[in-house]
Amino acid sequence: MAMAMHLYTCSPVPTRPTTPKFSSKPLSLPLVHPPRPFNARHHSIFFSSSSSNSIPPALSPVAAASVTSVQVDEPTTSSKSPKTLPFRVGHGFDLHRLEPGYPLIIGGIDIPHDRGCEAHSDGDVLLHCVVDAILGALGLPDIGQIFPDSDPKWKGAPSSVFIKEAVRLMHEAGYEIGNLDATLILQRPKLSPHKEAIRTNLSQLLGADPSVVNLKAKTHEKVDSLGENRSIAAHTVILLMRK
């Protein structure tokens, strides 16, 4: 009888991976040398894991991971006086309520109307606005701080007093007016007949040529208190030039 011979192929038995043996000795890593230190006079940054402000001789990756604090030197302040600006810009704004029984004074000119500004002084919204613009350009407190309405000596005072003081401070700081642009906002009365008189008087109070003083007037399209003839407002932008 012929006997069938069967050849069986067997796969090799997989071997269990060996566990790598770790040495108890610390792993030696290449040292990373720090970059050239910054100039401490400008912006010095020091990395340290201790309270020392010195730069360590070298930081390895392991040591870098243990950094716990970043110390930044205080910027060096200059002892020089601040630079004098060749020009300064200021903005002023004022608003007053209109009530019967008060005169309406704008730019030092008495304007005929059935109501005027209720205020501690004469309520000249334009001059108050110009004063704030000058003080703002000089970096000084506003008109309410220099001439507080809690002081009885300013009760009913003409606003020309405030203008003259602001101009004095301007000259004392070494500046003069480059140009001024003011906008009055009121529904009534129409200011067209009075604009030139207002501009001329304002120029005289400022000691400026009328050509550098501009005045505009706008209604408020019957919107809110300005448009309902219950208030009056003014904006002023002024440029001061170094003498």
From TrEMBL:
Originating species: Bixa orellana
Stated name of the protein: 2-C-methyl-D-erythritol 2,4-cyclodiphosphate synthase
Domain 2-C-methyl-D-erythritol 2,4-cyclodiphosphate synthase: 87-240
Localization, UniProt: Plastid, Chloroplast
GO biological process annotation, one example: terpenoid biosynthetic process
InterPro entries given in the database record: MECDP_synthase (IPR003526), MECDP_synthase_CS (IPR020555), MECDP_synthase_sf (IPR036571)
Subunit relationships: Homotrimer.
Taxonomy, superkingdom: Eukaryota
Keyword Metal-binding: yes
